[in-house]
## 1
Amino acid sequence: MLSNMACSLIEHKRINTTLAKAKALKQFVEPIITKSKEDTTHNRRLTFSKLRSKEAVTQLFREVAVKVGDRPGGYTRIIKLGNRLGDNADMAMIELVDFNEVYQTGASKKTTRRSRRSRSSKAAVDTTTTNEEE
């Protein structure tokens, strides 16, 4: 079950499941993603022995490993969605962090640093203009 869920996560970049399965999947898939950062034959065979899907392994090593290459860990995010209507089970969405465009747009925003010196120089310019007008 974890192998199939991991293949779906790699293929779709986000899946909805129960909270317990999402937590188990996170522990299962994060070491596999760490192995994919180094593209060697040995790592590909180890990954294939866990996933059993040739397409998922190639997509993992081509697309996912490129985006997570500089990240030291924490490749997945679990977001709680509430309870399922049928059996009241806790539902969650598990997704790959680097493939969510909503959170990445806010991270690229540049911050400006404001110092007191720039305010005082503006005030000095404003006072000289008012003195010249009088």
## 2
Amino acid sequence: MIKVLLFIIAFLLSFLSIGQIKEIPKYQPVDLALHNEIVKMDGIYFDAYNTCDMKTQADLYHEDIEFFHDKGGLATDKQELLKALKENICNKVTRTVIKGSIEVYPIKGYGAIEIGYHKFFNKEEPNAKSIPSKFIMVWKNENDRWKITKVISLH
């Protein structure tokens, strides 16, 4: 009898806790113009990434860049980061954003945070399956120019 009573209590408690879970709201841009601007900047950056345009990439990275990669660790030296991209990415890897996945949040007095999903395709492993992965980029607006100050790349 005690086992049945404990089961019923556990069942009711789990039922009550499910009722308290709030749904995650669907993303709606707080500032549509900012959202569109950051999506445009993302496109400019990754066009440069995909075509090995190192000048544009260098122009978009802030001098105090912090690039967090779940597999590669933290890079904080802009020139070393650019060198690694040139040696390991150029003409080997391309990136595509998952359409509709980008979220942009304004950061007052600083810029914006971009969160989204993308896929990478390795030209040296053309049959490898590309799995969507999450990324976060922090954009700083300095003198009406957007710069990437932080990247978090998760695979």
